[in-house]
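Any chance you could type out a protein's amino acid sequence plus the matching backbone structure tokens because I've never seen that pairing?

——
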Amino acid sequence: MMGIILSDMVPEKRAEIMARAAEYAHNREVGGIHYASDVEMGKISGSVIAAVLLNRDDFKAEYDVAKAELRSDLGM
């Protein structure tokens, strides 16, 4: 979910953000924290949750502020 939300905030860095999210998920599998099926379900549920959040007016208000701050901090 966070990879999707952050990628939406900084689409110029989408590939790097999603690669890091995938690496994080893989490390949790390698570390014995999750099974491969857990990671796959996390991808699916994270996608659904991100889609729901991005369509909520209360989330959008906070999101827009956070997006502007993040982009400013990154010099974008």
